[in-house]
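Collaboration report, partner site 2.

Our partner group contributed sequences for two proteins of shared interest, and the home lab folded both. The records are reproduced in the order in which they were received, starting with the first partner submission.
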Amino acid sequence: MNPVIDNRKARYAYEIQDKFHAGLQLTGTEVKAIREGKVSLAESYVVVSSSGELWVKGMHISEFSHGSYVNHPPLRERKLLLKKREIEKIAKKLNDKGLTLIPLKMYFSDKGWCKMDIAIAKGKHLHDKRQSIRNREDARDLREAKRI
């Protein structure tokens, strides 16, 4: 079974505005390490380069356990693969102040390709985070009250 790596911190710290699905340009040992589930999206973010390409920075893919001297560096930048129109749309939206591009989840498609869901998001303030927690707790209390 292929793992689904989720960036749970992103949904807590950011307000998601728009989502996109992108492919990843990876090496063989990176794919094998991802299949083992040895990936961290917690500190990662996406940037648009001056040449109009999307790059994931800060994503940690641990070295493959059975790899040799050809293993990949864990924190290298990885290119995202999207259509040109989608990249232009993302770059246009990122011109607004306070918006950023973050990875939400990484998974393998039905065909076996490694994919990443990315989102244009706005950072939440502390009081917004607290309000989200209150809303979640209230919803949980209502569900528990209905069961009784």
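Second partner submission, folded after the first:
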Amino acid sequence: MATVRDRLTRPPGDLIDAAARRSRSSMRERVDRLLGTWLTVAQCAVGAGLAWLAATQIAGHAHPFFAPIAAILTLGLTYGQRWRRAVELSAGVAIGIGIADLIVLGIGTGAWQIVIVVALAMSAAVLVGGGPLFVNQCAVSAVLVATLQGPNTSFSGARFVDALIGGAVGLLITAVIPTDPLRIVRREAEPLLEELAEVLDDVAAALQDRDPEAAKAALRRGRAMDPASARLREAISTGHEVTTFSLAPRRARGPLDAYSVAYEQIDLAVRNSRVLARGAIRATELGERVPPHAIDAVRDLAAAVRALPGELAGSSPSGRVGDAALRAAARSTAALEETGNLSASVIVGQIRSTAVDLLRSLGMSGDEARAAVRDARARLGV
């Protein structure tokens, strides 16, 4: 690894080339991110225009400032978020505006008036049972009314209606032109499963090199996966809502159901990877021998995890996950004949448990998966 001194003494040409490579990589990432969100950009742009058009042509409002704002806020939230939250947000915009309109009509605008407007808007939102998003949006919308537009001589409710129109347009566009529900799930599942596979590879490498520090690093990576696992759970729920409340293709329901079945087992596999890492720490710190069959079995688990996204989505040949998981089970069973130390026994137990989780992620029952793992060595002849 280059030291700070080495980097400072590199020729200018090398530094320029390195900076150019980083810039190209960063630009590719930004372009990929834009391509991944193009539908949301289009939805927001079209929604803002339609909300303005509806408020001016149907409601007859000359300057429906809040209609496109409400549409954009609603559409921006529904990309990969829960429908209930989107409804909360659009309602929060409308209610905050309505409350602020009434209050500003009576007391005008200014610093102390904003204090009262925000306090009353948030209090009203809490009283009607709104969640944090609803309460915050009421406050933000009330501030917009109290600061950006002066009070009228009489209450018309036009801005309240504009906000309702914008929110309705946003929800309608989300229903008619929905985000791909499978993309929402895959966007969260693929990085999580790749990280899980890398953690398993790290555990295998630590065992092979007998390196306790590498095993500890694998454990830290394993502990850091919980937020990604929670995001996958949320994405699966969101995907089901998209297919239920929108015109999303119903063919997405099959793969979504497969992910729903798989999720609990994936989460268990994430937890088991941490137990494996702790077993590797113990084995390497005590200098206890872990048979090569067990190390190869951990790598088989990593291969099974990497094959899981394609198999769940139906985009790769079926059987790869099951084959790799059963190979891991067979090799781990064979490893018990090579040593009887406690560390190896713990590692073998976790390999077999993770193999069961991966088989169950494909829809096997618990009894079927355990029987398959138990008979794996005899079937494969390892």
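Feedback sent to the partner group on the second submission included the following. Residues 253-286 form the longest helix (34 residues). The chain has two domains: 39-176, 181-380.
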